[in-house]
Amino acid sequence: MKKDPTKIVLDGFSLDLDSLSAVSRGQTKVQVAPAAWDRIRASRLCVETFVHQGKVVYGINTGFGKLASVHIPDSELNALQRNLVFSHACGVGPAIPPEIARVILLLKINTLCTGYSGVRPEVVECLLGLLNHDVIPVLPCKGSVGASGDLAPLAHLTLVLLGLGQAWVHGRRMDGAAALASAGLQPLELQAKEGLSLLNGTQVLTAYAAMALLAGERLAKLADIAGAISVESLLNSKTAFDERIQKARGHSGQIKVAENLRRLLADSEIMDSHRQCGKVQDAYSSRCMPQVHGAVRQALALAHELVAVELNSCSDNPLVFADQQEVLSGGNFHGQPLSLASDTMAIAMAQLANISERRLENLMDPVQSGLPPFLALESGTHSGFMIAQVTAAALVSENKVLSHPASVDSIPTSANQEDFVSMAAHAGRKALEVTENSETVLAIELLAGCQATDFRKDLEPGAGTGTAYRLIREHIPVMEKDRLMYRDIEQMTQLMRNGHLLAAVENAIGPL
User: Fold this and answer.
1) Which of 139, 274, 420, 451 has the highest Cβ tally under 10 A?
2) CA–CA separation, 268 vs 252, rounded Å?
């Protein structure tokens, strides 16, 4: 059945990356499936039964973390939840971008839909009201160690439900009470377990990882396009992309990238013009694209598997199993799967930028390219792409620093109760930053590749490279003399980010 792009129905178990992307842009409304409401009500009834019976259960009528052995009387349960939010709202640093904060809200609603958290339906309804009215909590980006999930930033999310904190309302920042009122919502008074359920979870670190993954998967395809244009402009050999070579090694990513390159370069008069030149030993950045780009794709596939599971996970603690009338304490809030996934993505994206910058450097060098230095029509008077390459080099070096894995670090917290943590929020933020840097590097390579193609103007480029070249030239003209290049880089990045470039190429030669 075809999805309605304007509406997403959450059931706790079937959320996908495409839906995250739509919600991040504020393009869709969210509902909760009837079966999910049934699970939410059943788990809440279980919590209320335990409270009524006076049964001592962690997270319901005890303290938290190191204070788990402290029993809390019924008369103080609501105060316990409110105090938990206040004490945990210790986030610092710049606010998480609204598009990511929307995804965090979506993920929090979806995890509550699994029916393991024991919150009242009113809590989920309030979260839905925020998201559907574009009331987006202002969440400081720092303060999470990735276990017990993302406590500090999620406490700031919960503040808005209480009429406190701050939120963006259609892009305008205001205090929590006014933000709720703008959506026709009343502040909540949290009851037993609800504060803990809202604070526990991996929604912040998952949102960052998911957004990095979405961008990374798009860039993996765009890197093949950029690389093919560079190979074509550098008059490199396409022998290295022969199907037989790839099958001799057997890696699926390598095989797919080589196939993409062959299709992108099909029917290229530029490539045919030097078919008999005898050159077979091109620089590794061209010759080994299938091996490098392919390895990046397979790393992203591993990350995709981990992220896709986490989208539909319950990372609360303790968990309410209403069917068995049990509440079990475990460690689902631990972010290690996403910490490893995010670090893997950061390293993979850094490598994609590394090899792109090397191809870019070859385009700058007249010895390697056979073209004017720095692709300037009048070298000397004009500097061409000289400093654009320097910018790419700066980003590549920054990526190397950011690619140091966060997942190998841990620091004990909560008086050694939480003695091994994941740092997955750090890993996710770094992965997204590396991906954005790499996007810019590829944008500069695409601009330079098209400039180099203009020097081969008597010959037609390939089926895919030609499509990309023509679309880019519709928006960004050839650089005949030095001009403000940051504008070109911004325009090129936009063509990549909005999907227009990839769509045009895939319409011409099929999916990459």
Assistant:
1) 139
2) 26
Put simply, whether the predicted model's pTM sits higher than 0.90 gets the answer: yes
- Please tell me whether residue 31 adopts helix, strand or coil conformation: strand
Instruction: List the domain boundaries for the chain.
Output: 7-201, 209-509
CATH 1.10.275.10 is held by the domain 7-201: yes
| 486 annotated active-site | no
Residue tagged active-site, from 58, 208, 284, 486:
58
| Cβ neighbours around 275 below 10 Å, total | 10
Q: Is it true that the peptide bond before 148 is cis, omega within 30 degrees of 0?
A: yes
Beta-strand (E) ranges in 92-150? 92-95, 135-137, 140-142
Pull the structure tokens for residue 296: 């990046």
What does each of the 512 residues of the chain score in pLDDT, given as a tens digit? 346 768 999 999 999 999 999 999 998 999 999 999 999 999 999 999 999 888 888 878 887 776 777 888 888 989 999 999 999 999 999 999 999 999 999 999 999 999 999 999 999 999 999 999 999 999 999 999 998 889 999 999 999 999 999 999 988 999 999 999 999 999 999 999 999 999 999 999 999 999 999 999 999 999 999 999 999 999 999 999 999 999 999 999 999 999 999 999 999 999 988 776 666 689 999 999 999 999 999 999 999 999 999 999 999 999 999 999 999 999 999 999 999 999 999 999 999 999 999 999 999 999 989 899 999 988 888 999 999 999 999 999 999 999 999 999 999 988 888 889 999 999 999 999 999 999 999 999 999 999 999 998 889 999 999 999 999 999 999 999 999 999 999 999 999 999 999 999 999 999 99
